[in-house]
Amino acid sequence: MNECVKILSTKVILSSKTDISKRNSARIEEKFPISVQMFYMMAIFLALVASVGAQQQRQPAPVDYWPPGIEGAVSLTFDDGLPTQLANAVPLLDAKGLHGTFYVNAGPEVEWTIQEDLWRPVARAGHELGNHAFRHPCSCNHTWIGKEHCLDNIGLEDLRNALEVTDAALDTLAPAQVGSRSFAYPCYESWVGRGADRQTYVPIIAGMFVAGRAGMAMSNDPRLVDLAYTRSFEMHGQKAAEVIDLIERGMRRGHWVVLTFHGIGGDFIETEVEEFEGIVAYLAQEKDRIWAGTFYDVASYIRERQRDQVAK
């Protein structure tokens, strides 16, 4: 008896659902003529086609772009030559056999001369000492920049001179890196002057260095990146797990992920030592598939590949 009731109940429910579906279809046809329905169906179809096309355009870099077995690259970069970089970042990198790029504002001022000897062994250990421009020229909106040195109030030749001063100081400090140095835009800003007189100084960087590192919170497709204005992610309080997830997203696309650090366990724009240690340990563990190289080394590799592409 109970089984009969269940069967009858099921039939009633299915019948009710069928009736409801028919009534809904009738209402749709009444409310929207066939021509309108066809229009919306076509619109949905075209949206799907466009989505597939966009996905095809975002195909990852060829597997064979990088050295054998490598999925992508990561560069750890550090700005402003801070004490906590020397105290915390360098020892952690050395312990795992990794090399970073440290951008300093080298030049004939006490702030640099009292610490330059501390950076000499860093260069000898294989870390890159990069050019961050003498006196760190940024927009005048940054009140800690002297008005006579801020970007709004200087020209291209002034900027070029700031670059040459730092290059000369680094050539003396790390002669093995002469001609093998990259640049990082102070405050990620790449212009001089004001208003109608504002000019980009990216062409100067393109002429003086293998590559220049900017910001923009993007990874770099090695086939397309403009090395004179390479994108990077600023690190400021992120957990190691967040950064590792960011790196893995880049590796799935065959990209070059550049991370920009400042303070490590202190100073400013800080990353906690424990989180930095987690990132370094992960890169050391994954070294067979992720190339963790200096900014200069990875940029040089990409430049040669780009030249090969042009030659073909």
Brief overview:
The protein has helices spanning 2-31, 34-57, 83-96, 110-113, 116-124, 156-173, 202-208, 240-252, 273-285, 295-311; strands at residues 72-79, 101-104, 128-131, 183-184, 191-192, 199-200, 212-216, 230-234, 256-261, 290-292. It is α/β, with parallel strands linked by helices and 312 residues long.
How does the SSE layout of this entry go?
Blueprint: H1 2-31, H2 34-57, E1 72-79, H3 83-96, E2 101-104, H4 110-113, H5 116-124, E3 128-131, H6 156-173, E4 183-184, E5 191-192, E6 199-200, H7 202-208, E7 212-216, E8 230-234, H8 240-252, E9 256-261, H9 273-285, E10 290-292, H10 295-311
Parallel strand pairs: 1-2, 1-9, 1-10, 2-3, 4-7, 7-8, 8-9
Antiparallel strand pairs: 5-6
Helix pairs in contact: 3-9, 8-9
Structure explained in plain terms:
This protein is an alpha/beta fold. It contains ten helices and ten strands. The strands form two sheets. Strands 1, 2, 3, 4, 7, 8, 9 and 10 form an eight-stranded parallel beta sheet that branches. It has a two-stranded antiparallel sheet with strand order 5-6. Helix 3 packs parallel to helix 9 (273-285) and helix 8 packs parallel to helix 9 (273-285).
Head-to-tail CA distance between termini:
82 Å
**Chain-averaged pLDDT:** 86
**SSE order:** HHEHEHHEHEEEHEEHEHEH
Shape type:
globular
Give the C-alpha Rg.
Answer: 28 Å
Number of helices: 10
Residues in helices, as a percent range: 40-55%
Number of strands: 10
**Assembly form of the protein:** single chain
